[in-house]
Amino acid sequence: MLVYGVSYRPISVMEYEADERRGRKKKIRQWQDEGYTEMSAIKSPSPTRFFTIGLVTSWYSSNIGVLLLNKYLLSNYGFKYPIFLTMCHMTACALLSYIAIAWLKMVPMQTIRSRVQFFKISALSLIFCGSVVSGNISLRYLPVSFNQAIGATTPFFTAVFAYLMTLKKEAWLTYITLIPVVTGVIIASGGEPSFHLFGFIMCIGATAARALKTVVQGILLSSEGEKLNSMNLLLYMAPIAVVFLLPATLYMERNVVGITIALARQDFGIVWLLLFNSALAYFVNLTNFLVTKHTSALTLQVLGNAKGAVAVVVSILIFRNPVSVTGMAGYTLTVIGVILYSEAKKRSNK
Fold first, then answer.
1. What is the spatial distance between Cα 293 and Cα 284, in angstroms, rounded to a whole number?
2. Closest C-alpha among 219, 213, 211 to residue 159
3. How far is CA 238 from the centre of its chain?
4. What is the DSSP letter of 104?
5. pTM for this predicted structure
6. Which among 24, 80, 82, 223 is placed 20 to 30 Å from 346, CA to CA?
């Protein structure tokens, strides 16, 4: 018993001290882990930031990609059927929108509540068709760089239509910022080596129609019961657009289906190009909706202004179209005007 008693106490103390050491080590490890976690949260970007960066990259890629592919098909490849190409885009938008909303539940489905609302959406769809078709026609004759320079004047046409249709007046500073927007395009037109009058008129028409759609949409779908998010609006506009474009295609681009089939027999790659191009047209709208949802209005303005400049640079690198110093100076002035316009609008809305 003495041996047991003498031997018991030292063992108990040793175990107690060992437990203490283990406890202290455990706490130190916990503190280290917590400290490491805090530091890692500071040093490394959060998953949300990676997600947003991925969305913006996808938005840029799809926007610039569909623009360059349209140019390649309509100009370089020789597929001279812009109305049929637009109809392919709208068909893909109708099908993929239904899949995204009805099956994948990406956004809640909103229903058309009245015949009046349906006619309003149909009117928007007709304007939308005119904008896209005119834009695609212009790409047959104009380089992407000049196309983007003209497209940057959308704020000017939006302000004009807003005043003519709603008598809405902007602050005088807002109107002043539109001067460099228009002046820049005039300078760019004079210095554009590949200027084509018909292509220029079509591009102006596309830009004006795009602005008109924005204003009309604000007027027609202004009540709370009729407002649709952009995904649901596309779901309803796209099939209506197909109905408008089908007779126009059959009348103005006769035998386009037969010609496309004949091209596919010679080079099946045209089928993959049309399918990919059409899917990309839908992803332009999808990524635009997601970027709008996950970023601020200011971020969206900055990204939108930069997107046109990126498209210009990429198109020049790919298509090697000639550019002049005067043309680039004009486009730069237009972009500066658009940025000033955005700032003026933001201040006037405060």
1. 14
2. 211
3. 17
4. S
5. 0.82
6. 223
